[in-house]
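Students often ask what a 'structure token' actually looks like in practice. Rather than answer in the abstract, let us consider Extracellular solute-binding protein, a protein of 521 residues. Its sequence is given first.
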Amino acid sequence: MKKILAALLALALLLPCAALAEAANAGYPCVDEPLTLTAFATAGPYTKGDFNDLAMWDVMEELTNITFEFEAAPSGQSAERLGLLFASNTLPDVIFKTGLSTTDVSNYAEEGQLVAIDPYLEEYAPNFSALLETYPEVRKAITMPDGHIYGFPYVVTASPSNCTPKLFINQKVLDAFGAEEPRTLDELTELLRRFKESDWNGNGQADEIPMTMEGFGQVLTGLYGTFGLGTRGASSTSWDIDPETGALRFIPASEGYREWLEYVAMLYQEGLLDEEIFTSDIAAYTAKAEQNILFFAPATNTNYLSTYQDDFVGLSAPLTRAEGEEPFWAGENLAVYANNTFITNQCENPAAVVKYFDYFYGEEGITLFFMGIEGETFYYDEDGNPQYTDFVKNNPDGMNMEEALGTYVCWSGGGNPSVADDLHFGVHLIPEATVTAAQNLLAYGPETIWPADFSYTTEEAELLAEYKLEILTYVEDMRARFITGSESLENWDAYLEQLDRMDLEGYTELVQTALDRYNAE
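Now compare that with the structural description of the same chain:
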């Protein structure tokens, strides 16, 4: 993954240059006569007002001669709404910023509801084509089993976004304890126990939470690497490669996973891990941070620690089980998020739409997408780098940066058909402490990162859904039972036997087939 990430970071530096085949506004407008198209979109959490009224659309309309009429749904409702549009075959011309699984893409493509974009790329998408040519990992991630590309991807090169979580620890507590940063699980555990009894906030109550995270998924990615798990990164939480055998491995049936369960169960049952971790979210995490009761609090961003964020720093390396072990970090994501923006069979001019979205993969389009409009939300400094204006950084109406930008652009919530790099995204919106914490961990990440799922044919996808429903549901249920102590880990062998009865072997063979196809592309 280091090679992939380095390549993508290099891409971010090359975006203004000829490597991405962009001459400013070359080949625009997309059509000679004004064209109005319909689109379904997911509105991110910071989008303000009517999605159709965002200032970026005025710029794009003038440039391309294309106007989109959006139906926008909040992120929590968009999947259901889009499913109804597909089921009733009442699709708009374009699906924008709304992710589909690889299985859904294959199914809808087979039904003829999605249009393959790869036949149009060479002629109408010079920026996007250059990206695929120079960085084949992007192409591999977005190519479906039939060999076609249907969705424009979100490519993230801002390094903090590729690290989930960051291992934040309360430096103020360490200083008060006269303690060094923990390097091993034993050192961390000793500090957690000490913090639990410390009455850190001085309220006379035993309300301290030694360890919490935004959600339980981060307990997986944040500690998997310590137990030799997650050798293909954070996107693939169920499957990786066994470093000893080189074979495909179902993580929840491995010895390392049993040892991980044993450690997490100990934390939970001693009251060292947040008792609400299974239902935790960002809002709950921040509310607890505001009470000054947290010590080891891995998260995506120090901003979530709110008032006390300056008390926290990132660990300088992943934790190990024993002193002298080589650290390994599993919490690294694939920098390519496929299948977010599509052209449907209702669109009569796919070439023009491909040309439209290609703009967002070039320097000017990336600047528009993430920074807004020059003179209003950003300006160029003396070095020629874009910087946010005071309207964004010190908004007169009290809006935070994301909210201020949400009146101009639509990037919040992810799924963007563009490239989020450090120049236009990372350095402006991500605190320095978060950047440093991510860089500390990514230095220990895996060489190869898998996507969250591989591509499957329609027949394979049907079988995959059955396996996931039965096996993964069982795994998640037993994971909670083992951790809370309602099921003893002495019953581990019985757990493995049940997985065998559920045909884990067949599930493994199916994933192996998809992996072989992925590796062959």
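One point worth highlighting: The chain is about 40% helix and 10% strand. Ask yourself how you might have guessed this from the sequence alone, and why that guess would often be unreliable.
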